[in-house]
Amino acid sequence: MSFSFSLSRRLSSSPSLPIPNFPPFLPNPTFPLCFHSQPPSIDNVVDDTVSQFSGMLLVRHTPPIIEFNKILGSLAKMKQYLTAISLSKQMEVKGIRANFVTLNILINCFCHLGQMAFSFSVLGKILKLGYQPDTITLNTLMKGLCLKGEVKKSLHFHDKVVAQGFQMDHVSYGTLLNGLCKIGETRCAVKLLRMIEDRSTRPNVVMYNTIIDGLCKDKLVNEAYDLYSEMDARGIFPDAITYTTLIYGFCLLGQLMGAFSLLDEMILKNINPGVYIYNILINALCKEGNVKEAKNLLAVMTKEGIKPGVVTYSTLMDGYCLVGEVQNAKQIFHAMVQMGVNPNVYSYNIMINGLCKCKRVDEAMNLLREMLHKNMVPDTVTYNSLIDGLCKSGRITSALNLMNEMHHRGQPADVVTYTSLLDALCKNQNLDKATALFMKMKERGIQPTMYTYTALIDGLCKGGRLKNAQELFQHLLVKGCCIDVWTYTVMISGLCKEGMFDEALAIKSKMEDNGCIPNAVTFEIIIRSLFEKDENDKAEKLLHEMIAKGLLGFRNFHGE
Questions:
Q1: How confident is the model over 441-458, as pLDDT tens digits?
Q2: How far apart are CA 496 and CA 512, in angstroms?
Q3: Cβ contacts of residue 524 below 8 Å, gap of 6+?
């Protein structure tokens, strides 16, 4: 039994992909034969190449097929697949017979276009002309199936050709392993690796790297590390890609000791860690709030002669902002510029967001002006950070003006933009403007989030428009929206403030029926309101329920 047959049967019980009865070469494609739009320099090269090809078709003595193949091959390398197919059709019309190389080029083109039926049609032509498909032909077809996500069909095709005596190579199995990992079948990829070992093809570092990468992305880092250890035992030397993948995996799980241990091993084996590995480690340290160690690592990489890039500096800046040390982030920003590394939009966004979070909105606005002065294009994230900062500083008019500027500069406002403004308007009791903004948002096809609804409901409740708040809340219930605990709690709070305890308790029951568990804040709002209205029996009953649920902290409900 062939190993791949057992594997493809393990993946699916569907029948194997047969070698079809191929239609005459070449079918008229059902897609338009037009050139891809490319940058002008590429267009010029393509135009020249097409002109050269057309000239060859017109000369009295037709050049040998190898000359046509060179042009078709170069077009395929430039990803001008449709153009190559179109020119091959012109060749056929002129009576110039395609050879094996031509047909392989066409298979490659059709595979990259996802036109697998046409790819197999060309394979049929190869067989009909008496050519023997080689490993390149078969590998290209398997890769084409994998690129379309049809990995099981690729395995079935592999079974067929192996059963017919064709030999597979490292590229064949690397393609199948990569395909399996891409669809999340990493365990099957490991099984395939084991089966390859029983055949003439010896697994190599690329195959191991492919599976290690898949396992790390699935957070199966211990299994990935076992494969790494196995490589050493089998005399397959891990390379920079192996270490980068594993270090990323360990950092993904927050296992920084393991990641730094791998870095040490890498250096001991004289494999130079590049800037990408240091970026991964600096990012991991920053996410854990260990910015001091991250900065030390920046010093280490600089000492080792590895030049930090914009990603390195931006990551460290973000780390400082996350722990509220915006001044240090600012110093890194200036140090980056002094080192000749140009900040990008992402770098500016980090600084602008950090400054806004610390209520240093004017400084953040200065950075926006600096970006515009440098002809950089601020994105939606840039504007959202500034609008949120202005709103939280009570400068709502400035925030609304900035949204207008954002629109004029071609950056579309999104749900975050509108929610920040709506929340600020509600907190300032500008309920008419808030409601108008909410309607405008919906008219523009921007769907409110639950946070948007909660902000508006809260504003309506606090602004004495309880009926409007109830209507909006009821709208969410009727729509079957997944209402979270905060939205329920805001509505309950609004009802309690008006002394509508029966309605508040009814919503509490409703939220429980809908699988949303009241939290300590929900209970506290109802209990405190009941005590204030001398509804002590009801308050104490809820207090006992709160204690039973383990939600009672050190709270003084009587306000003593």
A1: 999 999 999 999 999 999
A2: 18
A3: 555, 557
Residue 278 token pair: 């240091």
* Cα distance between residue 372 and residue 214, in whole Å: 42
Q: What CA–CA distance (Å, rounded) separates 485 from 105?
A: 59
Q: What does pLDDT average to over the chain? A: 88
Close Cβ partners of 397 (under 8 Å, ≥ 6 residues apart): none
CA-based Rg of the chain, rounded to a whole angstrom? 32
What are the C-alpha distances in Å from 27 to residues 20, 130, 159? Answer: 15, 20, 27
**pTM (2 d.p.):** 0.78
Residue whose entry in the numeric block shows the structure tokens 């008229």 = 28
pLDDT in tens, 289-336: 999 999 999 999 999 899 999 999 999 999 999 999 999 999 999 999
Task: Look at the alpha carbons of 344, 347, 353, 357 in this order and tell me if their dihedral is positive or negative.
Answer: negative
416-428 burial: b if 16+ Cβ within 10 Å, else e = bbbbbbbbbbbbe
DSSP assignment of 120-134 equals HHHHHHHHHTT----
Q: How confident is the model over 459-481, as pLDDT tens digits? A: 999 999 999 999 999 999 999 88
Measured at the CA of 24, the angle between CA 21 and CA 27, to 5 degrees, comes to 110
Burial 438-462 (b: 16+ CB within 10 A, else e): beebeeeebebeebbbbbbbbbbbb
Q: Helix or strand or coil: residue 515?
A: coil
Report DSSP letters for 318-355, one per residue: HHHHHTT-HHHHHHHHHHHHHTTPPP-HHHHHHHHHHH
> In whole angstroms, what is the distance from residue 227 CA to residue 50 CA?
49
The pLDDT value given to residue 556 = 54
How buried is residue 542: exposed, middle or buried, by Cβ count under 10 Å (0-12/13-18/19+)? Answer: buried
Alpha helices by DSSP H, listed for 234-344, are: 240-252, 256-268, 275-287, 291-303, 310-322, 326-338
Distances (CA, A) of 541 to 166, 230, 498, 527, 531: 78, 62, 21, 9, 12
Which phi and psi angles does 26 have, rounded to 5°?
Answer: -105, 140
41: confidence class by pLDDT, cuts 50, 70, 90: low
Within 13 Å, how many C-alpha atoms sit on residue 448's CB side? 26
Q: Which amino acid, 524?
A: E
Residue with the larger pLDDT of the pair 343 and 36:
343
368-373 long-range contacts, Cβ below 8 Å, gap at least 24?
A: 371/345
The 10s digit of each residue's pLDDT in 149-176 is 999 999 999 989 888 888 888 999 999 9
What does the angle CA 69 – CA 71 – CA 73 come to, to the nearest 5 degrees? 65
Euclidean distance between CA atoms 20 and 336, whole angstroms: 60
Q: Is 172 exposed, middle or buried (0-12, 13-18, 19+ CB in 10 A)?
A: buried
| 320 Cβ contact partners less than 8 Å away, ≥ 6 residues apart | 291, 326, 328, 329, 332, 354
